């Protein structure tokens, strides 16, 4: 065994409390190098009486490593442990300080989980595990009230630009809630709706006021109340990294310079404030001079923004926040933000916009979840072309699953596209069969799925602003077959807990083969999902030791022959099988 490849860190995403009774341990070894891993555990104050062994399961792999996991309930809420690893005739023990061939004496150098403190648990909203989000760019969804249209609004359906507006509003969302309920989504994510000069509203002028072109605060209250009456949650978008240059404190700095009482609200290099050759002499979002960066370490800025976060939850009843450019705001602010938001509503869902590995934000003291762009990038790379094989795809997804604790994986915000990316239909070059494979994976994978408005009826679009086209409401121009497909898969996920909380594992993902099989298992059910990511029809086979399988979408019985299941799939075809457990 390659001992140098072994890796484990106590009290991290490698060893954490899943709930107030259960500890999860993970261990990394070289790929295909270790036959068996056992966690040897016991209470440090009474090792002999409490000693237990827990075989670990290889649950994921990437190009270089295998990842082993085990969950168990220590008798007294604390545990000391080491790992016993075997391959062939060789056995070694791994402790916090050493790897050796002799069993170490408990418990001096053992790893230690001192105690499960309920107050320290990484608790995520239970409802978010079963949520299916629908992202709405309000200006482009539906115009429900033409009286509040912005001046010079473009005709609905014209080509979007970075500047034009179309008149979509909150009333338009209210008017289409029956459509959304019929589709089966049970949560909305609205891009910013607060007072701002742009069509996207990521340049906030007044954080306490709904933009007049969208309605007013009372209309937002009506939207939230109506959604709740239909069992639909509402998450708003908060832009706390930066604001609009029209934000009154910034205007005061422009006017009074160093004498302004708001001078410490921003990161200013020199005076007077100016933009030369596209470079502001104050910090901004990117290099956009019209979006100055807020100094969230300033106590007054912090107080102002935290009051905003609390207000919309307490007074309007929203169910969560999506946080724009979250990785560019200090961690101290987000820790305070979580305390305020969770005090207002312990079940509020907090999602940060972080495009890379986000572990430091999702350990229980800041966010519940992040926008999982690494997921969408890897998924779309696999299904938008057939150059990546199943082995590589499974490795990459396995690496993602090992990034975060399980409770985070259960509510990670999975998406295929958004207002910041090309639409999924464009990413698959208009191939609807490829698109369907993407959607099947999204809705049968671990995490909280999100659908970008219009994807369900075939809306296409390249990068911003093309991805922000107006929603198409003419049934003759909608892909109704695609809509029915989305509705079917959403209904399947909502109807089966195993697709929400069950364990995930690849069963077949081979080198040089674009066909994959994976499973979700738990809550009394077992699903296997079979996918052919090639143009040609295929016969996909895998050993199955039970005969109680049926097609999850049609109910048709599907039986293996002599212990082998053979599934015929058309080009870019899929099949979802299900059986009951116990």
UniProtKB/TrEMBL annotation:
Family: Belongs to the glycosyl hydrolase 13 family.
Coiled-coil region list: none
CDD domains found in the cross-reference section: AmyAc_CMD, E_set_CDase_PDE_N
GO molecular function, one term: hydrolase activity, hydrolyzing O-glycosyl compounds
Matching InterPro entries: GH (IPR017853), GH13_cat_dom (IPR006047), Glyco_hydro_13_lg-like_dom (IPR004185), Glyco_hydro_b (IPR013780), Ig-like_fold (IPR013783), Malt_amylase-like_C (IPR032091), O16G_dom_2 (IPR045857)
All residue ranges annotated as the Glycosyl hydrolase family 13 catalytic domain in the record: 135-493
GO BP terms in the entry: carbohydrate metabolic process
Keyword field: Glycosidase, Hydrolase
SMART domains: Aamy (SM00642)
Protein name: Alpha-glycosidase
Pfam families per record: Alpha-amylase, Alpha-amylase_N, Malt_amylase_C
SUPFAM superfamilies attached to this UniProt entry: (Trans)glycosidases (SSF51445), Glycosyl hydrolase domain (SSF51011)
């Amino acid at each position: 065994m390659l001992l140098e490849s072994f890796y484990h860190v106590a009290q991290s995403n490698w060893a954490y409390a899943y709930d107030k009774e259960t500890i999860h341990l993970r261990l990394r070894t070289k790929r295909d190098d270790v036959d068996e891993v056992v966690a040897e555990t016991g209470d440090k104050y009474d090792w002999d009486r409490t000693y237990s062994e827990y075989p670990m399961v290889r649950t994921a792999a990437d190009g270089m490593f295998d990842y082993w996991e085990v969950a168990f309930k220590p008798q007294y809420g604390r545990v000391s442990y080491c790992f016993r690893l075997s391959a062939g005739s060789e056995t070694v023990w791994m402790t916090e300080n050493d790897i050796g061939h002799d069993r170490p004496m408990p418990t001096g150098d053992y790893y230690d989980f001192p105690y499960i403190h309920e107050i320290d648990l990484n608790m995520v909203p239970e409802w978010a595990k079963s949520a299916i989000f629908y992202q709405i760019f309000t200006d482009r969804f539906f115009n429900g009230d033409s009286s509040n249209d912005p001046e010079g609004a473009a005709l609905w359906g014209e080509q979007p630009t970075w500047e034009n507006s179309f008149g979509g509003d909150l009333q338009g969302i209210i008017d289409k809630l029956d459509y959304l309920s019929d589709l089966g989504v049970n949560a909305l994510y609205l891009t910013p709706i607060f007072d701002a000069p742009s069509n996207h509203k990521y340049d906030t002028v007044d954080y306490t006021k709904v933009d007049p072109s969208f309605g007013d605060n009372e209309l937002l209250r009506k939207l939230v109340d109506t959604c709740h009456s239909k069992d639909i949650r509402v998450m708003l978008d908060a832009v706390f990294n930066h604001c609009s240059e029209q934000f009154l404190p910034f205007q005061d700095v422009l006017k009074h310079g160093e004498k302004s009482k708001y001078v410490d609200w921003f990161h200013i290099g020199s005076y007077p404030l100016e933009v030369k050759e596209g470079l502001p002499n104050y910090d901004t979002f990117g290099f956009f001079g019209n979006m100055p960066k807020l100094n969230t370490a300033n106590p007054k800025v912090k107080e102002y923004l935290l009051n905003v976060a609390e207000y919309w939850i307490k007074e309007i009843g929203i169910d969560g926040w999506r946080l724009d450019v979250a990785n560019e705001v200090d961690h101290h602010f987000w820790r305070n933000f979580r305390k305020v938001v969770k005090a207002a509503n312990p079940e509020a869902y907090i999602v940060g916009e972080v495009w890379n590995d986000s572990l430091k934000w999702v350990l229980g003291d800041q966010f519940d979840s992040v926008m999982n762009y690494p997921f969408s990038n890897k998924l779309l790379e696999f299904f938008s072309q057939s150059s990546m094989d199943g082995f590589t795809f499974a490795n990459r997804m396995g690496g993602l699953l090992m990034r975060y604790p399980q409770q985070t994986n259960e509510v990670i915000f999975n998406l295929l596209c958004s207002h910041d990316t090309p639409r999924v239909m464009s990413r698959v070059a208009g191939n609807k069969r490829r698109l369907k494979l993407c959607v099947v994976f999204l809705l049968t994978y671990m995490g909280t799925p999100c659908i970008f408005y219009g994807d369900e009826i075939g809306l296409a679009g390249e990068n911003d602003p093309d991805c922000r086209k107006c929603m198409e409401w003419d049934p003759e121009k909608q892909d109704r077959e695609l809509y029915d497909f989305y509705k079917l898969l959403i209904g399947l996920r909502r109807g089966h807990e195993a697709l929400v909380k069950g364990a995930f594992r690849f069963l077949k993902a081979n080198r040089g083969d674009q066909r994959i099989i994976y499973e979700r298992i738990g809550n009394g059910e077992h699903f296997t999902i079979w996918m052919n990511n090639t143009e040609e029809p295929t016969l996909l086979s895998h050993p199955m030791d039970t005969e109680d399988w049926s097609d999850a979408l049609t109910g048709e019985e599907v039986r293996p022959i002599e212990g082998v299941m053979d599934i015929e799939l058309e080009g870019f075809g899929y099949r979802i099988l299900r059986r009951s457990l116990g």
